[in-house]
Amino acid sequence: MHSFYNFVSGPLAWIAFLLFIGGSIFRIGRMLVLVAQKEPFIFTYMSWRYSFRSILHWIVPFATVNWRRQPVLTVVTFAFHLCLLAVPVFLLAHAVLWEDSFGIRWWSLPDTLADTLTVIVILGAVFFLVRRITRPEVRFVTSASDYVILAIVSAPFITGFLAYHQWFAYPLMMGLHVLAGDIMLAAIPFTRLSHMIFSPFTRAYMGSEFGKVRHARDW
Amino acid sequence: MKTIALVALSLIIGTVLAISPVWSQDEMTVVDNTDFPNAQRPPSVFVHDRHNENAGIDDCAVCHHVYDEGQLLEDESSEDQRCVDCHYLERMGDQPGLMEAFHANCKGCHEQEGNGPILCGECHVR
User: pLDDT for A6-16, tens place per residue?
Assistant: First the structure.
């Protein structure tokens, strides 16, 4: 009766976590090796001070010129990314699984709040989809993989939302939800979702160049 | 006269039959979750007698267990107590908290037996 759910939440979940953690370590290690081989001079101008100045500057909504130039995109992207991280990490149902499986106690959000944040993620994904299709400058740099990763990211939230409300074939929806989560976790290191692990490095790199080499602000 | 008596008798019997479920002890259909100050989910569906009949559980202590110093006391049961009397809202050392205890008792057994609901919404039905 639960064989599909047991498979996706058992062996497949282990594989997904292994790919996510192992893949992330591999990608960071590979990046460092490549830098050492091809552009070792980067280390001469990488700076902790300008790195963190830039990360801090860009992590605050509307703090940079580019955030202010695109106010709607700024609001949506901050809301989307915050909710995207907060919901799976602090969902009560996920905390219960951590507790039941490993005895790990974890903080959790009230279910109704998590439900609202989930809707924000789904609406954010719709916004990004529409933006990709309608904005010529975005469309120009869009490839099929961008739509695929948008689907990979929104699938766990759509299935999770439907499962939470128990609206359609509930046990099947739960299985699909876990499967979608497995796929997303495993995809992070190997697709452009890897900006999750690389964005601090790219920001630090640009911040260092603007600060220490060009002696300029980082907008 | 005989007809009136028959009508009266059937009325009395009908009334008694109609209200008798009110007199009988309420059958347990959900797990009482009133001890949770801020319950996030609907109470678990649990029809006590039907569950135990289906699962073939005769021994009350299978669920209504008694532990002393971390040791299960055989031949003792605790159906005269409330779960929350031992399982407080927060875990106390090795003693599971109330929610953890419910999940371990119900879902743990279902997983072990490979039978019965294990998904959140299969018990916490909306």
Answer: 999 999 999 99
Closest-CA distance, A201 to chain B, in angstroms, reads 39
Q: What pTM does this model have?
A: 0.89
Q: Which of these, B57, B59, B92, B102, lies nearest to B77 by C-alpha position?
A: B59
B76 contacts: CB under 8 Å, gap ≥ 6: B61, B65, B66
> For A166, which of B91, B100, B126 is closest by C-beta distance?
B126
β-sheet bridge partners, residue B68? B71
Cβ of B107 under 8 Å from any chain A Cβ? yes
Quote the pLDDT of residue A1: 65
The predicted complex's ipTM stands at 0.87
Residue B73: predicted pLDDT: 94
The identity of residue B48, as a single letter, is H
Instruction: Write the CB contacts of A83 (distance below 8 Å, at least 6 apart in sequence).
Output: A117, A118, A120, A121, A124
Question: Residue B47: what pLDDT?
Answer: 96
Contact A165 B120 (CB under 8 A): no
Instruction: Please name each of the domains of chain B with its CATH number.
Output: 26-123 (3.90.10.10)
Binary contact (B108, A171; C-beta < 8 A): no
Banded model confidence at residue B17, pLDDT cuts 50, 70, 90: low
Give how far the C-alpha of residue B93 lies from the chain's centroid of Cα atoms, to the nearest Å.
Answer: 26
Angle at A102 between CA A93 and CA B63, to 5 degrees: 80
- Which residue shows structure tokens 């039907």? B50
| Residue among A96, A163, A165 whose CB faces B103 most closely | A96
Residue in chain B closest to A170 (alpha carbons) equals B121
Residue in B72, B79, B73, B75 with CA at minimum distance from that of residue B94: B72
A99 contacts on B by Cβ (under 8 Å): 100, 103
All domains of chain A, ordered by start, with CATH?
3-213 (1.20.950.20)
Chain A to chain B Cβ contacts (< 8 Å) = 35
- Torsion angles phi and psi, residue B67, rounded to 5: -115, 145
pLDDT at B23 over 60: no
